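Re: the pair you flagged

First of the two:
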Amino acid sequence: MYILASTQASNFVSGVDKAFIIILAICFFFLIALTAVMIYFMFKYNKKKHPKATQIKGSNTLEVVWTVIPTILVLIMFYYGWAGWKPMREAPEDSFEITVNSRMWNFTFQYDNGRRTDTLFIPKDRPVKLNLRSMDVIHSVYIPAFRVKEDVVPGSDKFMWFTAQNEGIYELFCTEYCGLQHSYMYNWVKVMPEEEFNTWYTDTTQQLASAQVESPTAAGKRIMTNIGCLACHSLDGSRLVGPSFKGLYGHEATVKTGGETRTVMVDDEYIKRSIFDPNADIVEGFNKGLMVSYEGQLTETEVEQIIEYLKTLK
């Protein structure tokens, strides 16, 4: 079931909504009040009633009033904003931790037991801490129903935490423009009862069954799609950020290695090196530093499945 963002989906909804409503109410009050005063003055002091302008002397009392009152209102807005934000920076020590890997242009969620998913599965009524990592540029993780958002900056240790309070499926997406397919970074959060989540978390039979049925070629294509390879490499020979995968395997490529130009055969070892150390051999005509290493992101088996898929792209 899909839950609307207006429900108390997490422990932060109440504090964030309270700050939002208070700030919005103050803004609307002054919008209406100032507009009403302006209209009143337009009629009261128009040229027909006052053809000759008169000088109105200033008032020290009025100066103090319109300085003190806005200052108090600003401090009130600051207090409620700070009160809603401060708990977000203090994750409980017993939080269930999940690593969020962000790259152009997708999110993947990695669990301590080795599971990686495209949907964020979390237990209900248990603190969850998301450790945010960017593999390339600045991204931003936003779960509107939970009222949490955090920028993901390359090289910085960022996190967000929350306690989901309602079962259901919620939206998660990137809110930092990160390139051509920024809008593709759209995922889901599934909140499950803790017992059901624990069963899902520890059950590997489904993964094993899938691995037995799925061919290495199909698995390779799925993996490459999930980790965003096809966002930078085409399958039809067209030029994108990186070289096309079409006809790549088994052919020679001209690369720069340590500043020297050489010709290499695109074989298993070359592809493995390109995945784990992408700046070692730069294909002629492309720039260095556009791809980050997948070291620790992919297993040897997954790399072998990718190679099997590349072999089919004649």
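Second of the two:
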Amino acid sequence: MQLALNNPTELDALAQQIKCWGRELGFQQIGITAGVTQHDQQRLFNWLAAGYHGEMNYMAQHQAMRCDPAQLLPGTIRIITARMNYLPAAVPFSANPTHAVIARYALGRDYHRVIRKRLKQLAQRIEQQTGAFHYRPLVDSAPVLEKPLAQQAGLGWIGKHTNLINQQAGSWFFLGELYVDLPLPIDPPAVNHCGRCHACLMHCPTAAIIAPYQLDAQRCIAYLTIEHHGAIPESLRSLIGQHIFGCDICQQVCPWNRFAQLTQERDFHPRLQWINADLITLFNWNEPQFLQYTEGTPIRRLGYQRWLRNIAIALGNAPPSLRIWQALIDRLVYPDELVREHIQWALARHNRFTPALY
């Protein structure tokens, strides 16, 4: 017998069942909300007006859809939000200046496919209970204000670094949404617990967190190494360190991550080539090797040229050695001007040294 969607008791029971199904499918938490607030919308408008989105022009597009779920999927009245841990146990935070630094979320399989598949499975379980209904699973695949939605659904609060933080689990998790036309009961929004802490602001190497809850993406290492397509500003290159894809520093220093929970998803376990990855080894990959080793990972989206650009900067920030000097010299013949510019910058960082000194 199908559920009576006008019965509050049955809807409450369904909401609880959805949360149980979510845990069975590998999500650590499920929340339900009706949408974002006017405050959330205004924060988006202010951020865009300040130009803090940089080259991420997609953030300025379809603003009405971001703020009104029903414009993205007609008939939507609830958003089921989900979070899934991704922190792997096997990868320490390496301090070796010749090792590449890659954001933890990118060490395993691309999370988009994993989470979207689970959200679809969750929808199918609901459908068995309710009969056919309209739904759409979303994982960074449409104009959605995922962090404000997750906060409204009780999954966590948006911290001063603008990431979502959960009081019991820190911030090392992915988010996904399931838009539905079911009149489910909603969960209370999460309460902010950042307090007086300013650790993320103090430790951001590029001062991208310009004020509590305000991120200038144009200075953010994650933006510069992933979203930015052109030359990275020279004033920021030395601050990037050995980061070649993303940055986790604001999460590493967040006190709430002492409660972080390790992932149980094998798909998110790090691939061997990323564990203590040597910068020169990665720099010496040809394009077919890059495509082979990054297949099925978020890193593939960089493309080979930006991959070399990022590693050239990391090598320029590494301690001088003959091995680094030679690797940079060997790449000077690369036909892409963007890559050569960053290699030349890296060599200039070491120009007070000559091979004879090594």
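Residues 111-130 form the longest helix (20 residues).

-B.
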